[in-house]
């Protein structure tokens, strides 16, 4: 029997983290010929993950440009993938999540009549501008997808409401939990020396990430102002802000937080460093989607710096709380977790709704069954 040629396509660090354990699973299956194509929508941060998981792409489109636009990303991916598909003719393309790479790769596969598997399918806010452009990237990808690998039953229900045939939806759990089986260590020593100097036992460390487009400007400014007030009001609190490389985000963060006592401004860490920092910290503040899934696995409460989230399950389970970007609200909700141990414990001990770390093996099993049939 001919091997099933499966091409995994991704371009950003979050995609790479979640696709890595699935790629490792594909590589172990004799019936599958695994091919990897990266767009490098994010260059440096993507390369960190590839090195960590020892993944060598067969194709690297290297599309990243300074001040790249969404139009530029989309057209570059479409044009480059046409050449790759003409050469490889894969039986199936796997994409992940909600990036512009995901949508453009799915569209390119559709034009070549190649089957599309969407990992982490079915997340929705039903507001096309929140998150932007991720919400529409997901919906448009979903319209093209042949196999919807939904992380939860809520995601499956979203797809059913949109008219997706139930036999094409598979609840697998989220592959990000699989990835953490590779990265989290009990007695981890950071490569970043500044992180090793922090007293995680006697200080309450708040890890912060905030970079989404809808938060650029006033949103990031309010987040930074609230962090100044929080550290000034709580002598045992230290903030570690992992500052996104985007120059718009970086300029705002450094304007408000550079030189503030007990606020550490660090560049984005590689995946292993980030996961182990999450394990050591007291709580997390973020506008990231993936962290809302990762932190509950480690028992860390998350304040989501957004007005809406497509991770509804985490909100309903009580592992995350939406606080938006209003300065007073961020301060208030952070102080609740700092001062009310009962509420803190309820959030930290809530059950993670995103699975058991076996999503990748489920996805591979489904691919084999569908193609063998």
Automatic annotation (TrEMBL):
Pfam families, per database record: Epimerase_2
Highest taxon of the lineage: Bacteria
Molecular functions (GO terms): UDP-N-acetylglucosamine 2-epimerase activity
Coiled coil: none
EC number: 5.1.3.14
UniProt key word Kinase: no
Record key words, sorted: Isomerase
Domain UDP-N-acetylglucosamine 2-epimerase: 24-367
Similarity comment: Belongs to the UDP-N-acetylglucosamine 2-epimerase family.
UniProt cross-references to NCBIfam families, sorted A to Z: wecB (TIGR00236)
Record protein name field: UDP-N-acetylglucosamine 2-epimerase (non-hydrolyzing)
Origin species: Clostridium aestuarii
Designated gene of the protein: wecB
């Amino acid at each position: 029997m001919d091997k099933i040629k499966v091409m995994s396509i991704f371009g950003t660090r979050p995609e790479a983290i979640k696709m890595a354990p699935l790629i490792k699973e594909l590589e172990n299956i004799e019936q599958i010929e695994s091919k990897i194509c990266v767009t490098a929508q994010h260059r440096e941060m993507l390369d960190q993950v590839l090195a960590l998981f020892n993944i060598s792409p067969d194709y690297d489109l290297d599309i990243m440009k300074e001040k790249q636009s969404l139009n530029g990303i989309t057209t570059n991916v479409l044009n480059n993938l046409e050449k790759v598909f003409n050469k490889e003719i894969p039986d199936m393309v796997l994409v992940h999540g909600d990036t512009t790479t995901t949508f453009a790769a799915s569209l390119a596969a559709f034009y070549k009549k190649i089957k599309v598997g969407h990992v982490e399918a079915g997340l929705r806010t039903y507001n096309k501008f929140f998150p932007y452009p991720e919400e529409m990237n997901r919906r448009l990808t979903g319209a093209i997808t042949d196999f919807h690998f939904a992380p939860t039953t809520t995601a499956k229900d979203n797809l059913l409401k949109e008219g997706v045939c139930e036999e094409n939806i598979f609840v697998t759990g989220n592959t990000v939990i699989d990835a953490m089986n590779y990265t989290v260590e009990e007695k981890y020593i950071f490569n970043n020396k500044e992180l090793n100097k922090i007293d995680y036992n006697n200080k309450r460390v708040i890890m912060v990430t905030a970079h989404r487009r809808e938060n650029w400007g006033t949103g990031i400014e309010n987040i930074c102002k609230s962090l100044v007030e929080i550290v000034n009001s709580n002598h045992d609190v230290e903030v570690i802000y992992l500052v996104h490389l985007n120059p718009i985000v970086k300029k705002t963060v450094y304007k408000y937080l550079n030189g503030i006592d007990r606020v550490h401004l660090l560049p984005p860490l590689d995946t292993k460093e980030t996961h182990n920092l999450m394990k050591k910290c007291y709580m997390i503040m973020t506008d990231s989607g993936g962290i809302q899934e990762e932190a509950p696995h480690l028992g860390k409460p998350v304040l989501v710096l957004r007005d809406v989230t497509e991770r509804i399950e985490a909100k309903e389970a009580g592992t995350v709380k939406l606080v938006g970007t209003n300065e007073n609200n961020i301060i208030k909700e952070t102080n609740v977790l700092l001062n009310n141990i009962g509420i803190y414990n309820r959030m930290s001990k809530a059950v993670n709704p995103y699975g058991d770390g076996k999503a990748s093996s489920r996805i591979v099993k489904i691919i084999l069954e569908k193609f063998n049939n």
